[in-house]
């Protein structure tokens, strides 16, 4: 737990260029790296269409091939985090097909679908209560979040982004 208190209030202002320059440079650098990764992976995908395997292409690029656990359409992919665009693209492909490149927080991804599992009514019936509990918990969390957000607006809470970044935290996006 962390307890924060309001020390002082600064009026809104446009920060000086020297203040934001390092962040802007880092963002532009990351964007250029992502664009480069996307171009390289597009070329890699063309090579795969000519018969190369994902492992061969990855070795040439000095990249690692990772296999994820099963995931669904929610967008949360074990080992990669939340990427709804990637989940949707992967679920639209057939086993063996290659997809991507798709931008990701770490750069870009090229992927190959190794297996598809369909909906199993027997398995659904056996996990029905667990699913119901999860949905109820999700609704409670959303309601709690909405109540907290309403209260935050009523109290006019503002975050000091610089302080939160120094503490290794990021304010909630709103």
What does the model show?
The chain has 174 residues and is mainly alpha-helical. 51% of the residues lie in helices and 10% in strands. A two-stranded antiparallel ribbon has the order 1-2. A hairpin with a 2-residue loop joins strand 3 and strand 4. Helix 1 crosses helix 2. The chain starts with 16 loop residues before the first helix and ends in an 8-residue tail after the last helix. The relative contact order is 0.08. The model has no long low-confidence stretch (mean pLDDT 84).
Supply database-style keywords:
174 residues; mainly alpha; two-stranded antiparallel sheet
Summarize, please.
This protein is mostly helical and 174 residues long.
The backbone outline, from C-alpha atoms, is: flat
**Residue windows where pLDDT falls under 50 for at least 5 positions:** none
Number of DSSP helices?
6
| Beta-strand content bin | 5-15%
Reading side by side through the largest sheet, how are the strands ordered? 1-2
The tally of strands reads 4
| Helix content estimate | 40-55%
N- to C-terminal separation?
22 Å
Mean pLDDT metric: 84
Integer-rounded radius of gyration:
22 Å
**How would you spell out the order of helices and strands?**
HHEEHEEHHH
Structural class: mainly alpha
Sheet with most strands: 2 strands, antiparallel
């Amino acid at each position: 737990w962390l307890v924060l208190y309001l020390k002082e209030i600064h009026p809104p202002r446009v920060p000086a260029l020297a203040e934001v320059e390092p962040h802007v440079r880092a963002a532009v650098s990351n964007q250029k790296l992502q664009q480069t990764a996307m171009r390289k992976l597009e070329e890699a995908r063309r090579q795969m269409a000519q018969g190369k395997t994902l492992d061969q292409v990855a070795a040439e690029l000095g990249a690692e091939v990772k296999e994820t656990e099963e995931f669904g359409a929610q967008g949360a992919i074990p080992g990669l985090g939340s990427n709804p665009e990637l989940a949707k693209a992967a679920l639209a492909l057939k086993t063996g097909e290659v997809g991507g490149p798709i931008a990701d927080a770490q750069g870009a991804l090229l992927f190959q679908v190794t297996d598809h599992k369909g909906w199993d009514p027997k398995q659904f019936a056996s996990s029905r209560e667990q699913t119901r509990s999860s949905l109820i918990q999700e609704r409670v969390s959303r309601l709690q979040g909405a109540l907290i957000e309403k209260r935050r607006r009523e109290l006019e809470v503002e975050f000091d982004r610089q302080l939160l970044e120094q503490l290794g935290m990021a304010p909630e996006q709103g």
